[in-house]
Design goal:
two-stranded antiparallel ribbon; eight-stranded parallel sheet; TIM Barrel; alpha/beta
Length: 307
């Protein structure tokens, strides 16, 4: 696909924290306060505007508002029977935002859900069924790639990847699949796997990239990205929070300015060969703008991968 020719792919910034800054009326939530995905149906103008803000800032790829749009998560709001509708409307909203803009693309976002198989919350079979249903809806609606993100459990990640490639094969489609794990501040995923286990587990899959998102800011991702730089042969993504969250006057705040965020991200590209970047919790259009400007004309460093 054309966007794979770009040496650096710039994804958008945060969804939830930016929606919280909008004056969204109660009726747009349709009684499902906290379910961002319902806005695709009852407040699409807010989702479209968020996408446009990120595109105006310099994002090349927008992620659909479908992070929690699997039946497992939607069931918490009584919306488990509306998976196809919500996912397809989310893609339509993203498509509206990129209309008339050259070289802009849509990534179908697939989050980890709220039940992890390694902890016995859900069976692999049920997780696979739910994930497959969501992916089928995203592909039917016409996404340009899939991103399986904020992975906290490698069994969940593998299940999602198997489902993705099964659906792609069945649909006779060849779309890029990105995988992004979440490493907590203590240095492992939620269920205890380190970055070496991530590489060993995901190496057999024909994925475009492996990287990190959420949990921390860029600084706490550095050692893990350095490992990927020398031990992962494909593309690397870094999509951090706007620093480690802090509680100020009873509210969650993120410390990194757009300039500081962009500078730390530039180091990953310039020194470690990272080629897919974006922002997670807290990151605003201003952060994506600073990132795009900082990386203008930059070529990712050449990497020496240990075979």
């Amino acid at each position: 696909m054309a966007f794979l020719d770009h040496p650096i792919l710039i994804l958008d910034g945060a969804c939830g924290t930016n929606l919280q800054l909008m004056a969204i009326p109660d009726e747009a939530w349709a009684g499902c306060e906290g379910c961002n995905e319902i806005l695709n149906l009852h407040g699409p103008e807010f989702i479209i505007q968020l996408h446009k803000n990120m595109l105006d800032a310099g994002a090349m790829v927008v992620e659909t508002d479908t992070f929690g749009a699997s039946s497992v998560v939607l069931a918490e709001y009584g919306l488990q029977d509306r998976v196809k509708e919500i996912n397809q409307r989310a893609v339509e909203n993203a498509r509206s935002a990129i209309a008339g803009r050259a070289d802009k693309y849509i990534a179908g976002s697939i989050g980890p859900g709220t039940k992890l198989p390694s902890l016995g919350h859900i069976s692999v079979a049920e997780l696979a069924r739910s994930t497959r249903e969501q992916i089928e809806a995203l592909l039917e609606a016409g996404v340009d790639c899939l991103i399986i993100e904020t992975c906290q459990d490698l069994l969940q990640t593998k299940t999602a990847l198997v489902a993705a490639f099964e659906v792609l094969s069945s649909a006779k489609l060849d779309l890029p699949v990105l995988a992004s794990v979440t490493i907590e501040q203590q240095g492992t995923m939620l269920v205890g796997s380190d970055i070496a286990a991530v590489v060993a587990t995901l190496e057999p899959f024909n994925i475009l990239s492996v990287g990190l998102n959420c949990a921390t800011g860029p600084q706490d991702m550095a050692s893990h990205i350095r490992y990927l730089s020398h031990n992962w042969s494909k593309r690397i993504s870094v999509i951090p929070n706007q620093g480690m969250p802090e509680v100020i006057n009873g509210e969650t705040a993120y410390p990194l300015s757009p300039a500081d965020f962009a500078s730390q991200m530039h180091n990953f590209v310039n020194s470690l060969g990272v080629s897919i970047v974006g922002g997670c919790c807290g990151t605003s259009p201003a952060h994506i703008k600073a990132l795009a400007e900082k990386l203008d004309g930059v070529v990712p460093a050449q990497r020496e991968v240990i075979q």
